[in-house]
Specification:
alpha+beta, 4 helices, 3-stranded antiparallel beta sheet, 6-stranded antiparallel beta sheet
Length: 207
Amino acid sequence: MKTLYLECNMGAAGDMLMAALTELMPDKDAFVKELNDLQIPQVNIERTTIAKCGIMGTHMVVTVDGEEEKSIDVPMHAHTHSHVHEEHEHTHEHHHEHDENCTCGCHDHDHHHHHHADEVFTSWGIETPNTYSAEDIEKILTALDSGEYGAILRAKGMVPAPDGTWVYYDYVPEEHDIRSGKPEVTGKICVIGSKLDEDKLAELFRK
């Protein structure tokens, strides 16, 4: 008997873990059928193949009441705090390095790039009440591809929109996804990469 060990010190997204385990199955379709045969109320699971940055992979689509489940995790400790006191505003910025010993949770598990352990990454982020339209986020994510803001490996977040809805987004180099999502207490923005120009990133996301 073979034993499989999972190191989840930075967490594991359910759909991504399920996709990885599905790849180990000799009959993948039969495995998905067994999952659906559990007859969890209003839940359906479908296996699809997608390409990210030219790399093919398995994507498990989990729908509840016909709507696909979405998840996003923006680190709460790698961000800028903004406070307003008596008609003036100041910010406190925090950032840290990411290496092989990092357990902050900023590394995303659907990351499609492989890096040597001695490479160091940093993250930049903010919490913001400012509103952004889907078009605003489209322009911002497109700008990240320019290289002007550093070597951006991943960006994700959720922000309120002017019409009262919420805009969620995910970014990897030369590809991004923008969608609507559930309301949150405040907007959250996170960028991960190397040699980040934090001043330029702050200006890019400033409203």
